[in-house]
Amino acid sequence: MMTRTVDPTQELAAFLRTRRERLDPHDFPLPSRRRARRTPGLRREEVAELAGVSTDYIVRLEQGRGLRPSANVVEALARALRLPPDERDYLFNLARQRPRDTEGPATTAAPPLARLVADLSPLPAMLMNHRYDILAWNAEMAKLLVDFGALPPPQRNAIWLCLMHPRIRDFYVDRERVVREGFAHLRAAWAAHPDDQALTDLITEFTTHDEEFARLWAERDIKVNGRGYKAIRHPDAGVIAVHFEVLVPLQDPGQRLVIYRAADDESQSALDRLCAR
């Protein structure tokens, strides 16, 4: 049996109709209507009023006439239809628009993810947000990198540590590549979160006070690193080479799980000795 390619315009039309029809008019502060309702849910003119668009626009959207609503209109429709986060993202995808981050960046670890970080031992693991703020870590990661718990919260940031911490500055064997890739990832995050003032302030601080960051930031490299390799020059255990993997949980897409694995037998032995102390 052949399946047809999804038509985003028609799927958008059907999705809007079904979400409008499932709503209870009594849940909305709308003027009372005397005439009886012949269809379930809200009327098109009521959705139009809630979203701040014309009724004709809603009609054309629901009839699949090829309209491509702007991000502002999609956001207004999502609010009017009271879409949960997953359906809101789906609506943005159908409209071929990037959804906005309405909740802001995570500043604390989601409890299930914090437990997962601990359960990943003996693999070094940590949890970060898009700013590179370190939200949770296990004992192995703290022994490999730095005692995060002893740092004030503003310094629990991977980029800050790499630039400013006296021990971490010379931590990586191939420092130029590591920091260049980190800055390129940070630039991608900055473009994806233009309203994150704290991230903008962080970048301004780095640009103002660190010549290396200012030089590499001006090159405008863009790269999203999902996996890679680092060789760490540990003061107690010697050189430890690791492969890293960055995973984004479906339930908490604003948080990133980072897992290290030894890249060779010598590194595994060094990591075992370090963590056994």
UniProtKB/TrEMBL annotation:
InterPro entries: Cro/C1-type_HTH, Lambda_DNA-bd_dom_sf, MLTR_LBD
Species of provenance: Streptomyces violascens
The HTH cro/C1-type domain, residue ranges: 34-88
Domain of life: Bacteria
Name the UniProt record assigns to this protein: Transcriptional regulator
Pfam families assigned to the protein according to its UniProt record, in alphabetical order: HTH_31, MLTR_LBD
